[in-house]
Amino acid sequence: MKVQFLAAAAAVAVIALAGAADAHGPTRQKTTKTIEINAPADKVWAVIGNFQDASWIPVVEKTEGTGGNDKGATRKLTLKGGAVIEEELDTYDAASKTLHYRITSVDVKTLPVNNYSSKLTVKDDGGKSTVTWMGAFYRGYPNNDPPPELSDEAAVKAVDGLYETTLASVKEKVEKGS
Amino acid sequence: MFARAVLVALSLVVAGHARADEAFIVNQTGDSVTVLDLSSGKAVATIPVSGKPAGIALSRDGATAFVTSPEGRSLAVIDTADRQVAKRIPLEGGPLGVAVHPSGAPVYVADWYGSDILVVDPAAGRITKRIAVGKSPSGLALTPDGKLLISADREADQISVIDVASETQIATIPVGKHPFGVTIDQDGRRAYTANVESDDVSVVDLGMRKTIGTVKVGDRPYAVALAGGKAFVSDQYAAQVSVFDIANLQAAAAIAVGEYPEGVQASPDGRRVYSVNWFSNTVSEIDATTLKVLREMEVGDGPRSFGTFIRKTP
């Protein structure tokens, strides 16, 4: 009886959370990080331009997905440590080396954001290339007066950290491999 | 013949000397409003507005701009000629969408955390009534005769029709998924909602009280502008403005603009359309006839201008 009650209470909590996940804080945040890589754009795009392979992001352990690089393709990222992020591809343009995707499911303990969308572009710069990673997202707390770990600042800091670490890693990987 | 030539010449002179229209661009992360001179394309003033402002409505005479701050939970009343905040009115919840009655008052503010439209008396500086609508009301618009107020109830996938005289919801009309911006045509016959989650625009006949068409647009549409028989839709994720013909509801073009276009509105003469690009911190000016971008103008950080933001100067 008690177990049943707990299960029911847990179910209610899940429903409440699902409702909350739909909303988000009032002010969307944004960040842009760029890095110059001493390698042709084609070579960089070959590393980061496949939506079904996120192994270039150091924190990712495994990528599983469906739909290839078509609009609407999905992927599930299993991070080192076991956390999971689910994402969907919104636009993919191999000619301009641009892809645009969004997170469809993430625990705010993993990444303290809501309604996260992101755009990745590789531009050729005379044999070198510039990678630009843009993110737009709301903080992890979906209402006014957030706790510090789910504030606007915490969200920006987490995404900045992810972008900087990852872009530095890509640069190192591509330049070493050339 | 001679008289007509003189008249034409005179009208050209007058047009040349008239003050340019202005755009009041609400910079959310910048906590300010940039006033853009739409002739020179330059910022002519920056008005500080705290509380992460997002929504805006200009009075019909252009004298007053009402700006919502969702985080600051307040409404700033801006004297557009003075370039100053004349008054701050404290509100509640998450005030975002805003519209002003054609007569100048009241001002309607949508609380997107709740399910109410706040009726605000700007002179008295207080809420006079709360009108119950669907969950998470976002965009607001009034018919030009001032008789009906329409609210896009985002989480309810509907619009509410509100009778202005009795200040009550008199009908709901189902639209696409998560309607955000809503725009009413000059005849007060149709409303257009940008549906963020179904990537389309619902065309609603207000007389029939039903959705008569649905037009697919780009990713994450935010708001709709009307000019020259066409609808211009800001598609946030696609970084474009989708254009469709409002007579046959057929797609006409997709115009690349800055990143994350949000607020979008036509100039008073219908010759230009302006998209406010949140990520790029710019405003794109589109020729409503050739459907080409004419220029991109710099504004403050995180511009949104959700609502009506073009001021026809006297």
UniProtKB/TrEMBL annotation, chain A:
<keyword id="KW-0732">Signal</keyword>
<dbReference type="InterPro" id="IPR023393">
    <property type="entry name" value="START-like_dom_sf"/>
</dbReference>
<dbReference type="InterPro" id="IPR019587">
    <property type="entry name" value="Polyketide_cyclase/dehydratase"/>
</dbReference>
<feature type="signal peptide">
    <location>
        <begin position="1"/>
        <end position="23"/>
    </location>
</feature>
<dbReference type="Pfam" id="PF10604">
    <property type="entry name" value="Polyketide_cyc2"/>
</dbReference>
<protein>
    <submittedName>
        <fullName>SRPBCC family protein</fullName>
    </submittedName>
</protein>
From TrEMBL, chain B:
<dbReference type="InterPro" id="IPR051200">
    <property type="entry name" value="Host-pathogen_enzymatic-act"/>
</dbReference>
<dbReference type="InterPro" id="IPR011048">
    <property type="entry name" value="Haem_d1_sf"/>
</dbReference>
<dbReference type="InterPro" id="IPR015943">
    <property type="entry name" value="WD40/YVTN_repeat-like_dom_sf"/>
</dbReference>
<dbReference type="Pfam" id="PF21783">
    <property type="entry name" value="YNCE"/>
</dbReference>
<dbReference type="InterPro" id="IPR019405">
    <property type="entry name" value="Lactonase_7-beta_prop"/>
</dbReference>
<keyword id="KW-0732">Signal</keyword>
<feature type="domain" description="YNCE-like beta-propeller">
    <location>
        <begin position="23"/>
        <end position="98"/>
    </location>
</feature>
<dbReference type="Pfam" id="PF10282">
    <property type="entry name" value="Lactonase"/>
</dbReference>
<feature type="signal peptide">
    <location>
        <begin position="1"/>
        <end position="20"/>
    </location>
</feature>
<protein>
    <submittedName>
        <fullName>YncE family protein</fullName>
    </submittedName>
</protein>
<dbReference type="InterPro" id="IPR048433">
    <property type="entry name" value="YNCE-like_beta-prop"/>
</dbReference>
<dbReference type="InterPro" id="IPR011964">
    <property type="entry name" value="YVTN_b-propeller_repeat"/>
</dbReference>
